[in-house]
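Worked example

This section walks through a single chain of length 515. The input is the sequence exactly as stored; nothing has been trimmed or padded.
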Amino acid sequence: MPRHPDTLITPNAQLAARRADLPSPLRPGQRMSRTELADAVNTALDQLYPDRDLTAQCVDHRWIGKLERGEHRWPSEERRAALRLVLGAASDTDLGLYSPRRSGGVGPDAVDRQQVTRSRLRPSLLPAGNLLQLGISAPAVPEGGVHGTISAPGGKHFPGASIDVEVYPAVDDGRVLATIPGCGAERSWRRSVQRRLVLGHVDAPDRAGVFALDSRQADRHLVEAGRDAHLLIPRAYQLDAITTGVVWAVTNLELPLLLDDARLDAARAAASPYRDLTRSAASHDIAENLDSVSRLWMGSAFCADHIRRHSHVLSDVPVYWTREQCGEEASTWLLFRHKLRYLRNTAERFRSNSQPMTRMFCLPPQAVAASSMPERILLLLAMALMESVGIHTAVTDEPEYAALPGLVMDKRRAIMATWIRGDNVWQVDVTDHPHTVATYRNALGDVLAHSVTASDTPGGRLRHLAEHLSLDWHWLQGRCADLGQYGFVGLAEPRSRLLSLDGVDQACRFIGTLP
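Given that input, the structure is written out below as tokens.
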């Protein structure tokens, strides 16, 4: 039976036009892509409903495509509220959204005009109020500059933090120069204890963006010019999904580690008896006074030591299974100082073998959709770091594998080491039980055989990963080349001795030099 004409699927031109009117947060001079709109909607969901877990409501570019093609006309109330906020719409009908059941399928004109913003919109919420959105847009900056505070949002493990900012007008004539009026010895950010960013805001039709320097680095870049000074900011330090993601991670990691420094030493001393055990599980009691980030660091460090202590039982080139599923978790590979040392040591040990080591991840669609673009980029950078030391990466999108413990194994033995998404600070073991080893071997064999990133080259694997994460590989590679040349020290120098930028710098240089 043919469809009634009123039920035919028609493109949602209103929604598509709204998106086309917005500038891309990543590509100056271009329009917002479907992926970028999806990221903005997911961020808006967090802003509108901070007390609710809306992971299931997160969207991706495919969902935006269905809306624009008219295949779906009535999203959930939460998603509609987020779309209205991002696209600046007063009502659902302004976006071509309507309920077919309420309107008889005849289109948005038949919808009751009282379908307006009913959720907890906060019109005063500017994009610059959130670090992960700072690069999207910014209001005009007066000549005297703007002083304020932005948030580095929390997450599953991150506690959330704030960053002091000073924003000054800037020009971009091939180099970014911010004008700082009345510049003198009284500059408040010269020796700031609090993490502070000095920003230059370029507002030109052909070149627009926000560029940043860590306040402790800014003084070195100043060029005095009479009563005012010009701050020279590397163009590589434009705030976008890469740079804000790294600053976000460093900010959330460093403060808990600094505050817990003495307690971490005490907790590690209390944990020393566990080092001699083949099997152990440390409850949160051993780290009850530590912040969640400090517990992550402690669990990660113990598991790395456990694998090193027992790796002599492995006779073949091992394969690794890791549990990180979001950028928040993956940032530990990039920034924890001991993780880079661990990667380099394990890679060096098996470098002479003809068979490469492989490290595997589980990144199901739900986890990808729930992550912001900066988090997805941190995931990709973490895997690029592993590829840079000669460790191949593989990815499954099958969610059932997420329950596997962290492990290292060859044909006969498995070393288990779990410190993420577990009930304990760590849980470790070593086994040669045939059934257990066979179960893990079959699972990892299936992941390797059906990896969504399968390729013969590191560049091919990372390109496939970028596609899986809905990231623009060509843009990402160009930006990583620039950032790899400068390094992140001028933008996100850590205050904690337990953190290092060497890993993220190495990952960017590796991506930037790939064919």
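What to look for: The chain has three domains: 5-110, 127-239, 278-512.
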